[in-house]
Design brief:
There is one protein chain. The protein is α/β, with parallel strands linked by helices. It has a single domain, classed as TIM Barrel (Alpha-Beta Barrel), CATH 3.20.20. Helices cover about 45% and strands about 15% of the residues. It contains ten helices and eight strands. An eight-stranded parallel sheet has the order 1-2-3-4-5-6-7-8. The two termini are about 20 Å apart. The structure holds zinc ion. Zinc ion binds next to loops.
Amino acid sequence: MVSNLKLVDAHIHLSDPQYTGHTDMLIDDAKNSGLVALVSNAMDYATSVEALKLREKNPELIHVALGIHPWNVNILKEGELEETISLITEQHQLGNVLAIGEIGLDCKYESIWEHQLMVFDRMLRLAEKLGLPAIIHSRGTTEFIVDMLPSYNLKRVLLHWFSHPMTALYKAMEHGYYITEGPPTVYSTGIREVVTNAPLTNLLTETDGPVLFRKAPFNGQMTRPSFVREVVHAIADVKGLSVETVADQIVRNFEVFFNVKLI
Ligand SMILES: [Zn+2]
């Protein structure tokens, strides 16, 4: 029964160098576990190009979000920002881009704050111009970002791995934003509280692989798309709903948010 569940991983980094040599295994894992869509998020130009190659080989399963991650703004090569914007624009015209991501702001990289802000603004303007959803990283900056986004004309916003504060969650929900949650839903009381307070219709599942999870049942394992099965079970547990109801709604949310038909 459970093996028939249709699942989605709305945030993974298949083209991350840590996954080099493992992508065939990850794709097999996804196909064997009921995954019907993976959104491979880029971090810079090179990971955008690699993500597009993976999509070309598996267009029925792999979708791509392209952009520049806040962690990478300081190691951009000369011209890389403009080249990435051109690549995204050109690939969008070919119908290959699902979203702009992963973009955002990270409080741990305060020394490059101005640079982060400049790149984030360029990425948000691009999402606006192309009419694409934005997938946002907001460690320690969620409230700031939720307050700044209304000045952009964005169609759809996904706050990935939303953790706190709850006031920003309520504002995000009022704006119709979506959030993704991953393996910590199984063991983190903070994330379970977010899931309790977020309507199921605004939730998507993710792994954020190759990020490693140090707690059971994920510890010691390479992060794989099939981890979202545990996430769906955890959401069902928190919400007091059946696993099937949660899985179905999350696939529907994916279709609505990204404007694609999966099954
Ligand atoms: Zn990520």
